[in-house]
Amino acid sequence: MSDRKRVVIVGGGIIGTCSGLELAERGHEVILIDAEPDASSSTHGCSYGNAGMIVPSHFVPLAAPGMPMMGIRMLPNPESPFGFALSPSPRILTWALKFLTFCTDKHVSSSAEVLRDLNLRSRAKYLEYAKGWDTGSSFGLEPKGLLMICGDNHSFDHEASMALKARELGLKAEVLDPKALQALEPEIEIISAGGVHFQDDAHLTPARFMHAAKERIKALGGSIIKGKSVGFDGTNGKLQSVRLEDGTAVQGDEFVLATGSWSQDVGDTLGLKMPMLAGKGYGFTVPNPVQTPRYCSILVEARVAVTPMLDGVRFGGTMELGLPNSKINPKRIAGIRKSIPQFFPKFKEQDFQNLPIWHGLRPCSPDGLPYLGRTQMWSNLVVATGHAMMGMSLGPVSGELVAQVVTGEKPTVSLDKLHPERFQ
After folding, report:
1. Is the pLDDT of residue 41 over 80?
2. 6-145+200-222+256-418, which class in CATH?
3. How confident is the model at residue 42, as a pLDDT?
4. How confident is the model over 58-84, as pLDDT tens digits?
């Protein structure tokens, strides 16, 4: 192609990888800089060990009414699914104050359509990948929906109201009493007050997808550099190169910033204000479970995600907000283990002992929406980060939108609410 560009992508997680994939598919020269030394394990890296869910049902952003009070109620319990690992700092205070201003019904209402559209487009892209790639291996895509499993009537009533809102948005959602819910899952015993089947959702095996996507990038002529970026070089509002720890300068025509929970730090070096906290999650995969569900599900009160994958059944949860760090909090993991038998009684806590523990950092913006689009400060920089719990779900559409911005195509989904300099 005559306008072929050399695009340097900083960040080798799901967002950076999908950006590289979509750009390579369009014939551009892709250089993906991946800071992870070895991300082949499902316990390593946020994009590899997550719950693997594609969730059009998640049209409510993290910043929503009730979230601050829920956090306060759960704060005294170290095993709760939501909490803070906060230390006093201007960065955390700034984020928290902004977050509070967005926890309104108005914000939720104004965000619902764009989150729906992003997730539905991403689901369509996953289906295209599954059908069109010649990778030699499946990434376990199952477009059969998601079950919200409720342990009590209060949660059931809330989820039923969410099903109604979903249908108003054009999504398919079926409210199920306990008998109907159990009928969908005849191979696993469930204790519940009922639930909702969000039929537009799907799931996959993240590590298999990441491996296949990176192999696809290389097959299309792209390259993947293992290394950590330490800065950018640029003048007059245009970037020239990314500097790596070993002193290498990687030059490009266009640059993509997809550095996840570290994006605020990287953005600061470029003069960009992108408030961000890391939402730490934990999980583990049971390779030979006593029972295997057919559907992915969320155990509502416990806020635990359950996903049948190609390598076993994965359980994951918690949202522990703070600055990026790799510390593992064993009490959060204990909370996940204790909650599962309350919904799936055939499982016992000892079934989850001695398993490798995954932890990942989800990049959380104060308004719960991604930072996505070209910056005004740097004419050849596109930002794609801040996807919170929906990174895996929104990977393909984010990659498509990055490629469309780089090539000047009309975006598939409006970027108006996602501008990376909206807090500038």
Report:
1. no
2. alpha beta
3. 47
4. 999 999 998 888 877 887 788 888 877
Interatomic CA distance for residues 45 and 342, integer angstroms: 29
Alpha helices in 46-89 (DSSP H): 67-74
Long-range CB contacts (within 8 A, 24+) of 352-355: 352/284, 352/286, 352/315, 355/284, 355/285, 355/286
Single pTM value for the model: 0.95
Percentages (nearest 5) of helix, strand, coil residues in the chain: 35, 25, 40
Q: Which of 28-37, 107-116, 244-253, 293-302 has the lowest mean pLDDT?
A: 28-37
Q: How would you class 27 by CB atoms within 10 Å of its CB: exposed for 0-12, middle for 13-18, buried for 19 or more?
A: middle
Contact 384, 19 (CB under 8 A): yes
Three-state DSSP state, 235:
strand
| Alpha helices per DSSP H over 59-191 | 67-74, 90-102, 105-132, 153-168, 178-184
- Name which of 367, 372, 115 is nearest 256 in CA terms: 372
pLDDT tens, residue by residue, 333-359: 999 999 999 999 999 999 999 999 999
Judging by DSSP bridges, how do beta strands 358-364 and 312-322 pair with one another? unpaired
* CA neighbor of 114 nearest in space, from 420, 404, 397, 408: 397
Tokens describing residue 166: 């979903």
- Helix (H) or strand (E) holding 312, with range, is strand 312-322
Section 79-97 average pLDDT: 82
* Tokens found for residue 241: 């190169």
Give buried/exposed letters for 301-319 (b at 16+ CB in 10 A, else e): bbbbbbbbbeebbbbbbbb
Which residue, among 401, 356, 420, 319, has the nearest Cα to 48 in the 3D structure?
Answer: 356
How far apart CA 124 and CA 63 sit, in angstroms, is 26
pLDDT of 90 reads 87
Is 11 within 8 Å of 266 (Cβ atoms)?
Answer: no
- Pairwise CA distance, residues 81 & 77, whole Å: 9
Give the helix/strand (H/E) hosting 16.
helix 14-25
